[in-house]
């Protein structure tokens, strides 16, 4: 679960977290001691008392880290610029157990930027999971939604979990297959 390169951590306050891989929400008490096993995309996976937990970037201060900075977009940005930022944001979403973002894992089938009814923009995403029964499915969907709604001018992100076509390893980017040893 952790190695000599994992960073030791002590929770400075009570902190909301998600038990991995079950996906259950928990509160980790202040003073808990463990190790950061993954710090990618602004969230953290920590190993505490024999379990893995995911801590959202907004709670980074609980483990002595800085929350991610707010996203910026020029006021005159067109849909193309927003779409580029959408894909950049999607690449900040990671499965807590796999150090590869959801785009390179091949989990995102589609991301479309559309005008919203009350102004601004809506993003519609179709994505899948590596396994249909994954306990972290709704957590990943919520992570994608919340990260896309951080984009200026995006008023709503509709993230649909689909299983057709079923995910398989060939959907991974070459870099992801190389990283996981599946090349």
UniProtKB/TrEMBL annotation:
Pfam families: FeS_assembly_P. It comes from the Bacteria. Residues 84-159 form the MIP18 family-like domain. This is Fe-S cluster assembly protein SufT. The gene is sufT.
């Amino acid at each position: 679960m952790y190695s000599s390169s994992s960073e030791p951590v002590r929770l400075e306050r009570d902190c909301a977290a998600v038990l991995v891989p079950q996906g259950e929400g928990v509160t980790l008490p202040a003073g808990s001691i463990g190790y950061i096993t993954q710090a990618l995309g602004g969230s953290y996976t920590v190993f505490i008392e024999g379990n893995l937990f995911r801590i959202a970037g907004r709670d980074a201060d609980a483990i002595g880290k800085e929350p991610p900075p707010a996203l910026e977009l020029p006021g005159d940005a067109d849909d193309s610029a927003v779409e580029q930022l959408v894909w950049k944001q999607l690449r900040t979403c990671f499965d807590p157990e796999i150090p590869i973002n959801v785009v390179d894992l091949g989990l995102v089938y589609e991301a479309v930027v559309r005008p919203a009814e009350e102004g601004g923009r809506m993003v519609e995403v179709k994505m899948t999971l590596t396994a249909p029964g994954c306990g972290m499915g709704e957590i990943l969907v919520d992570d994608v939604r919340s990260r896309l709604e951080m984009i200026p001018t995006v008023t709503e992100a509709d993230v649909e979990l689909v299983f057709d076509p079923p995910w398989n390893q060939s959907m991974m980017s070459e870099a992801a297959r190389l990283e996981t040893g599946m090349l």
